[in-house]
C-alpha cells in the first residue's frame, strides 16, 4: 500500500499552476512521473503523489524539474482564470478510475510516440552520417585519381621530350661530315695541347671519389628495468606493468589542474604519500586524509590504496580496508618481480581484515597467496598456520556439537 504525499505546496496565477512535491530522500533516477492534461502522478516507492486536476492544463507546454530533494511542476492553464482548488473535490471513485486509465493510456501513447520519433531521428542521423562518409570517400578517391592523372600526364610529357631529344641526337650523328671551320685562335685540324683524343662513342670516365676516413661509432644499450635475465623474465607482463605505471604518472597532470587551489607541494601525490608518515606517529586519520587527497590526484597508484588499507586496519574500518587492499591488488597487475613485495603486503592487509571479521577461510587464502610470493617469510608461515588451527578448531567444535545433539 503506497503512502500518499500530503505535504505538497502549490501556487497559481491566471495562466499557470506551480506544484512542489517533496521527494522524501529519493534520488532523481527513482522518480516516475506521469503527466497529462487532467492528471498528475509522482511515484517514488513507497510514496505516491496523485492529483486529479481541477481543470485541464496544456500538457505539451508543461515542465517538470527534479532535484534538490523536490519535484517542481509548471502547468500552463488552458483557460486563464483562478482555480478554487488544485484537485477535484469529488469522491467518485469510478470517475477517478476513468481519468486515471485515460491518463495512463495517453501517457503510454506519448512514450510510444517519443520512442518512435527518437528511433526515426537516430535512423536519419545514421543515414546522414553514412551519406557524408560516402561523400568524403568519393572526394578522396577523386582527389587520388586527379593526382594519378596529373602524374601520368607529367610522366608522358617527360617521356615524349626524352624521345624527341634522343631522336635529334641520332639524326645529328647520322648526318654526313662536311668541312668545319677551324676553331678561333688556331689552325684547322689542330688540337689543344695536352688533350687526349676521344673516340666516337666513348665518354671520359670521371675520377672516383677518395675513400672515406675510418672511425668508430659508440653504442650504448639502455639498461633493463627488471633485473631478471631476459630468458627468465615474462617480457609481455613486464611491458604491460611499465605501461600502466606511465599512464598513472600522466594522469597526475590533468588531476592537478582541477585542484588549483592547493599549494604546489599538495598537488604532488608523492609528497602526499610521504605525508602518510604520520601513520608512524599514531595519527591514522591524518594519514587516511593525506592518502585520500593523493588518490584524487593519482587514482592509479596502488601503494596509496595499500597504505590507506593499513590505516583503516588501525582505525577498525575493516570493510574499507578490504576495499582498498582489493583495489591495490587489482592495480598491481600483471604480476611481475617489480611489484611482488607490494602484492604480498596488500594480500596480508586484506587477509588481516578478513580475519578480524572472523572470515578466516577468506583470510587464509590471502595469507597463502602472500606465502607463494615470499615463501621464506617465517612470520607469514606462522600466521597462516594459526589461521588454519582456528578453522580446524571451529570445524571440530561444530562436529562435536552435531555429535552431542
TrEMBL record:
Cellular component GO terms, alphabetical: dynein axonemal particle; extracellular region; neuron projection; nucleus
InterPro entries per the UniProt record, alphabetical: CS_dom (IPR007052), CS_DYX1C1 (IPR037894), Dynein_assembly_factor_4 (IPR052004), HSP20-like_chaperone (IPR008978), TPR-like_helical_dom_sf (IPR011990), TPR_rpt (IPR019734)
BP-aspect Gene Ontology terms: determination of left/right symmetry; epithelial cilium movement involved in extracellular fluid movement; heart development; inner dynein arm assembly; nervous system development; outer dynein arm assembly
One Gene Ontology term of the molecular function aspect: nuclear estrogen receptor binding
Location(s) in or outside the cell: Cell projection, Neuron projection; Dynein axonemal particle; Nucleus
Keywords per UniProt: Cell projection, Cytoplasm, Neurogenesis, Nucleus, Repeat, TPR repeat
Superkingdom, natural source: Eukaryota
Ranges occupied by TPR repeats: 344-377
Residue ranges of domain CS in the record: 3-87
Record region (Disordered): 103-125, 167-223
Signal peptide annotation: none
Xref: Pfam families: CS
Protein's name in the database: Dynein axonemal assembly factor 4
Source species taxonomy: Eukaryota, Metazoa, Chordata, Craniata, Vertebrata
Amino acid at each position: 500500500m503506497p503512502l500518499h504525499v500530503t505535504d505538497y505546496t502549490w501556487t497559481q496565477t491566471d495562466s499557470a499552476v506551480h506544484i512542489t512535491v517533496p521527494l522524501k530522500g529519493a534520488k532523481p533516477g527513482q522518480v516516475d512521473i506521469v503527466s497529462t492534461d487532467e492528471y498528475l502522478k509522482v511515484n517514488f516507492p513507497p510514496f505516491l503523489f496523485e492529483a486529479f486536476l481541477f481543470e485541464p492544463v496544456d500538457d505539451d507546454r508543461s515542465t517538470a524539474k527534479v532535484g534538490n530533494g523536490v519535484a517542481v511542476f509548471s502547468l500552463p492553464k488552458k483557460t486563464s482564470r483562478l482555480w478554487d482548488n488544485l484537485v477535484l473535490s469529488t469522491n467518485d471513485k469510478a470517475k477517478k478510475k476513468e481519468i486515471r486509465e485515460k491518463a495512463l493510456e495517453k501517457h503510454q501513447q506519448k512514450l510510444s510516440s517519443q520512442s518512435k520519433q527518437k528511433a526515426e531521428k537516430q535512423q536519419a542521423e545514421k543515414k546522414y552520417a553514412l551519406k557524408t562518409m560516402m561523400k568524403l570517400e568519393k572526394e578522396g578517391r577523386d582527389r587520388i585519381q586527379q593526382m594519378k592523372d596529373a602524374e601520368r600526364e607529367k610522366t608522358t610529357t617527360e617521356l615524349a621530350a626524352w624521345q624527341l631529344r634522343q631522336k635529334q641526337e641520332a639524326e645529328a650523328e647520322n648526318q654526313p661530315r662536311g668541312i668545319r671551320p677551324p676553331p678561333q685562335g688556331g689552325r684547322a685540324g689542330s688540337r689543344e695541347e695536352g688533350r687526349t683524343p676521344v673516340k666516337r662513342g666513348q665518354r671520359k670516365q670521371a675520377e672516383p671519389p677518395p675513400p672515406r676516413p675510418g672511425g668508430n661509432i659508440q653504442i650504448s644499450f639502455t639498461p633493463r628495468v627488471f633485473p631478471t635475465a631476459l630468458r627468465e623474465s615474462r617480457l609481455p607482463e613486464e611491458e604491460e606493468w611499465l605501461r600502466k605505471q606511465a599512464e598513472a604518472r600522466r594522469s597526475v597532470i590533468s588531476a592537478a589542474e582541477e585542484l588549483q587551489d592547493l599549494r604546489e607541494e599538495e598537488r604532488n601525490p608523492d609528497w602526499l604519500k610521504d605525508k602518510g608518515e604520520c601513520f608512524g606517529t599514531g595519527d591514522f586519520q591524518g594519514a587516511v586524509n593525506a592518502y585520500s587527497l593523493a588518490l584524487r590526484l593519482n587514482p592509479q597508484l596502488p601503494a596509496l590504496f595499500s597504505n590507506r588499507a593499513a590505516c583503516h586496519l588501525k582505525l577498525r574500518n575493516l570493510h574499507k580496508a578490504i576495499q582498498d587492499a582489493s583495489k591495490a591488488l587489482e592495480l598491481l597487475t600483471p604480476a611481475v618481480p617489480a611489484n611482488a613485495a607490494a602484492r604480498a603486503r596488500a594480500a596480508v592487509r586484506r587477509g588481516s581484515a578478513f580475519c578480524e571479521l572472523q572470515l578466516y577461510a577468506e583470510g587464509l587464502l590471502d595469507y597463502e597467496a602472500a606465502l607463494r610470493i615470499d615463501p621464506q617469510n617465517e612470520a607469514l608461515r606462522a600466521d597462516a598456520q594459526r589461521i588454519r588451527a582456528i578453522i580446524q578448531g571451529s570445524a571440530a567444535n561444530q562436529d562435536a556439537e552435531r555429535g552431542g545433539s
